[in-house]
């Protein structure tokens, strides 16, 4: 399958959260192929350094910072380090999340707060960290990752779906506040994406069959399709796209 090249992404500085594996890894690689300067963070230091080394051998300008996104001062410091190496970002991809399953009956206040930290809070502070540089540049694209799970009224992970629903409100508010600076803010909405983590933990032949029956396009959603939507939203081709949801869920809602 052939994909588009976006000249406006060449030499663009892009920051990605959760870039060492899964969808985030595909996004980091995709920007590298476009000639962007890519900085990414991840809690997996070994994996992140391996990805950075791989991309450097391909001539990509890449920087990695290990970071636990639950620690906001650490997040802010990591972004400052990436900026010192690559320059201020004009693209931010808030990808990092964990869709751990949990029953509502067993959720404690501590677990609730930790899940919100993993799936929502860091997006706000990442945006806060990069917005001044985008304002100075007079342009920017912020891409937040939502989920089709709450649209489908999925059960079995209520704190996760609560956090992902909140992403959409945050996106639209930031789009209004930052739009006067030509900064666009959008949400990408994945369906059930066949990452290695999903395959290892939750994909079964029965569940996959049910998912294919629900989708209008009865084919597995691979991470590459999410990365391609992110590239479009980061590029000049989407210059008048903001405050909206961009579905990559094969028609399952």
Describe this structure in words.
Helix 3 packs parallel to helix 4 (109-137). Helix content is 47%, strand content 15%. The protein is built from 8 helices and 7 strands. The longest helix has 29 residues, at 109-137. It is an alpha/beta fold. It has a 7-stranded parallel β-sheet with strand order 3-2-1-4-5-6-7, with helices on both faces. It has one domain (7-190, 222-248): NAD(P)-binding Rossmann-like Domain (Rossmann fold, 3-Layer(aba) Sandwich). The protein has helices at residues 22-33, 45-57, 72-86, 109-137, 158-178, 196-201, 205-214, 223-234, and strands at 13-17, 37-42, 62-66, 91-94, 140-145, 183-190, 245-248.
Structural class category: alpha/beta
Number of domain units: 1
User: H/E series, N to C?
Assistant: EHEHEHEHEHEHHHE
Cross-sheet strand order for the largest sheet? 3-2-1-4-5-6-7
For the termini, the CA-CA separation is 25 Å
**Global Rg:** 17 Å
Query: pLDDT under 50 segments (min length 5)?
Result: none
Main β-sheet, in a few words? 7 strands, parallel
Q: Report the top-level CATH class.
A: Alpha Beta
Morphology call: globular
Number of helices: 8
- Helicity range of the residues? 40-55%
């Amino acid at each position: 399958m052939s994909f588009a090249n976006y000249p406006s992404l060449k030499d663009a500085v892009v920051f990605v959260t959760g870039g060492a594996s899964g969808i985030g890894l595909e996004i980091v690689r995709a920007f590298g192929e476009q000639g962007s300067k890519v900085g990414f963070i991840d809690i997996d230091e070994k994996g992140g350094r391996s990805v950075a080394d791989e991309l450097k051998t391909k001539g990509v300008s890449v920087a990695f910072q290990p970071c636990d996104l639950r620690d906001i001062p650490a997040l802010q410091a990591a972004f400052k380090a990436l900026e010192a190496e690559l320059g201020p970002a004009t693209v931010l991809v808030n990808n990092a999340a964990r869709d751990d399953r949990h029953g509502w009956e067993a959720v404690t206040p501590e677990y609730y707060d930790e899940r919100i930290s993993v799936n929502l809070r860091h997006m706000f502070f990442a945006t806060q960290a990069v917005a001044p540089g985008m304002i100075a540049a007079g342009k920017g694209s912020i891409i937040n990752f939502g989920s089709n799970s709450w649209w489908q009224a999925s059960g079995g992970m209520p704190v996760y779906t609560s956090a992902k629903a909140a992403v959409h409100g945050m996106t639209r508010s930031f789009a209004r506040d930052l739009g006067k600076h030509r900064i666009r803010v959008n949400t990408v909405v994945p369906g059930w994406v066949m990452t290695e983590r999903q395959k290892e933990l939750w994909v079964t032949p029965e569940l996959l069959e049910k998912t294919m029956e629900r989708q209008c396009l009865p084919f597995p959603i691979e991470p590459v399709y999410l990365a391609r939507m992110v590239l479009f939203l980061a590029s000049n081709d989407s210059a008048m796209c903001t405050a909206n949801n961009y579905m990559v869920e094969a028609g399952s809602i």
